[in-house]
């Protein structure tokens, strides 16, 4: 395998490792926003 391909594989591996480390340090857990109805008697289903 040419040296150029080895370097590209190494760079891709480093990007994966850096992304994984960043995801573990700063996890993003999206939440659900629920709005309370203004008019009484209205229900959110």
SSE blueprint:
Layout: H1 3-25
Describe this structure in words.
With 45 residues, this protein is mainly α. It contains one helix and no strands. It has one helix at residues 3-25. The longest helix has 23 residues, at 3-25. The protein is rod-shaped and about 70 Å long.
H-E order: H
- Shape designation: rod-shaped
- Return Rg in Å: 23 Å
Note poorly predicted spans.
Answer: none
Task: Indicate the percent of residues in helices.
Answer: 40-55%
Strand content: under 5%
Total helices: the number is 1
- What's the count of strands? 0
Distance between the termini: 59 Å
Structural class of the secondary structure composition?
Answer: mainly alpha
Biggest β-sheet, characterized? none
Mean pLDDT: 87
Explain briefly what this protein structure is.
By secondary structure, the chain is mostly helical.
What structural keywords apply?
mainly alpha; rod-shaped; single chain; 45 residues; 1 helix
């Amino acid at each position: 395998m040419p040296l150029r391909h080895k370097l590209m594989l190494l760079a891709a591996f480093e990007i994966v490792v850096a992304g994984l480390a960043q995801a573990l340090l700063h996890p993003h857990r999206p939440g659900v926003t629920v709005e309370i109805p203004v008019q009484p008697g209205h229900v959110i289903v």
